[in-house]
Amino acid sequence: MEKKTPLISLDSILHATLLLLALVFIQEVQGIGVNYGTIADNLPPPAEVAKFLSKSTIINRVRLFDANPELLRAFKDTRIEVTITVPNNQIPRVTNLTVAREWVQTNVQPFIPSTKLVRILVGNEVLSTANKLLISNLVPAMQTLHVALVELSIDSHIKVTTPHSLGILVNSTTPSGARFRQGYDTHVIKPMLSFLRDSNSPFMVNPYPFFGFSVDTLDYALFLPNSGMVDDVTQLRYTNMLDAQLDSVYSAMKVLGFEDVEIVIGETGWPTKGDPAQIGVDPMSASEYNGNLIRHVTSGVGTPLMPNRTFETYIFALFDENLKPGPTCERNFGLFWPNMTPVYDIQIMRNTAIGVAHYRHKSRLIIMVILSFIGSWRGLIFL
């Protein structure tokens, strides 16, 4: 009987398996973003920060609150995805196409592709400013900047959006009942969502359970075991406040017909220090929130209304910012000290034992699945 040559060699399958595992491992290890604020006088040089993040942490996304050229040069060749920001006071100017082109020529073109710029944010929480000039110019500025990117054929790599506080929502007792504020909903947010859908850009929100919890809901805010909350309309149970906040945004978007637009978490975090009267403001609570946050948003579980999803998430913040005004907590959201040692452990260092064990466990599961697949097809490939 003639021996047939296998259509696919086992060596080829094993090589492909190892390559797949390597790719999966890289993707798993890198998957969280951070806000890099600089309102401080004790921060390390940007080049050292960029090197530290790329070599020593699982952080692979950074959001900047401006377009500081020193910071943009620092992330050159690091493969870290960088988001830059048009400051609020520049929004009216960039509605002019000539100005938008100049802004892109100055703040984008000199740094790409060596710096991996992926997003331009037009302002920060503009709708919360109640500044009519900024609000009326927000969407036009987004559209004009997008046109400037299209003209350079870089719009597929660099997207335009803007982050919002949850103040854009009307207070609701249930996530399913949430709506955008009247006036903003049809005049600003609806055309904005239309632009985001057409340009394949995300809707960015800044949910902060820290600013919404009470003594009775601290565990609910920290992703710790609690009795949860049931939405009376959908009968869905919520076991953490972040899910309820995200589903509130989703519900408001759905009412306008834009539930298919991706939601990105532009800011969220928990401070380590606050004023004397504040409860739940300490390193332990910050560790609980941010550690559980990372596990939750990368798990693929999603939320009750958005199941089986992961969420691109940017933790606030990389460092404490000792020159920020306001209450004590505003200056104490940092994940790292200025010497770049962790303020607390949430397994974002590449050499974290728990983190490595987690990824090894996932790799073993993938190996088992692939070997099972090979076993099932072994007889077929030699026919």
Automatic annotation (TrEMBL):
InterPro entries: GH (IPR017853), Glyco_hydro_17 (IPR000490), Glyco_hydro_17_plant (IPR044965). Residues 1-31 form the signal peptide. Belongs to the glycosyl hydrolase 17 family. Keywords: Disulfide bond, Glycoprotein, Glycosidase, GPI-anchor, Hydrolase, Lipoprotein, Membrane, Plant defense, Signal. It is found in: Cell membrane. One of its GO terms (molecular function) is glucan endo-1,3-beta-D-glucosidase activity. The gene is LOC107495122. One of its GO terms (biological process) is defense response. It is a lipid-anchor; GPI-anchor. This is glucan endo-1,3-beta-D-glucosidase. GO terms for cellular component: plasma membrane; side of membrane.
